[in-house]
Amino acid sequence: MRLMTLIVAVALVGATPAAAEFPERRPIRVLTPYGAGGGIDIAARILSAVGERHVGTRVEVVNMPGAGGMNAMVFVHNAEPDGHTLVISDYGPLVTLPLRERTPYDADDWVPLFQVTEIAPTLVVRPDFPDPTFEGWRQRAIEKQGRMHVTHGAYMSSSPLPLLRLEQISDIRTNHVPTLGGGETLQFLLASIVEMAITNSSSIASSVQAGRVIPLAVPTAERVPELPDTPTFTELGYDVVMPVWYTIFASAKVPEYRREILAERIEAAYASEEARQMARRANIYLRPLSGDALHEVYVETVQTVTETIQALDE
After folding, report:
1. Are 114 and 267 in contact (CB under 8 A)?
2. Residue 247 and residue 109 share a domain
3. What is the pLDDT of residues 195-236, one digit of tens each?
4. Backbone φ/ψ region at 237: left (φ over 0), alpha (ψ -120 to 50), beta
5. 259 and 115, same structural domain?
6. Which residues of the chain fall short of a pLDDT of 70?
């Protein structure tokens, strides 16, 4: 009888693919489509620092910038779909790029596992702006009929897309002045080269605290903790919800049971006290999201970005 029980138990274990050891005792690589030192890189390195105790194997971060993020995405897309090669990104390389260029992948080829944080592209002006409120800025932009200079990151990056969306659904028009990123964007504003900027909340947090810039609005579903007095576009009457998330993705070709294991363990890693302390030191506000809620956010982002870019091409 004991022998028969043992045979049945072995048969059941062999019949369950999830029972196989995963992850294997080799590293999980998390690629970033950008260089070292940025927000996404820092978010990934938090997982690398605490991941082995929670994920079950070493987590390595690999920076692979180039081609607007396509280099990293193609590498992960072509990797063995065993769950050992992931990517952490904002929506630019995953969603925007395939809509603008020919890529060997599209938005449906990715499954979000875990959102680390959410960044708010923020409309900001200097304190000497004639009326440093959203309505004051809107009226001035209308009066100038597209001659108001607004600076932001690269033209089709994630920071200016909420402003482009706002212009599509309103009577606001501006003259866009792209820069190399958040630091240069802030410099253009403070040097009075432009009247307004839209940049990530983390890039202007210290300037807001110092009173050098005034935030006007954020394109998030709710007000962000670092700017509690700044209204959302929705509060102001404009249906523009386009936050920038930093999310870890797997290829859709990775078996579902492996994606579920990864999502659960990565969530546990970021929930650890060590990860939370590292995030605080790096001024990263963890906004964890997973499961159906995360999938819904991804679907909504794809839809909104698609509509925005298609309107630009009309």
Report:
1. yes
2. yes
3. 999 988 877 888 998 999 999 999 999 999 889 999 999 999
4. left
5. yes
6. 1-20
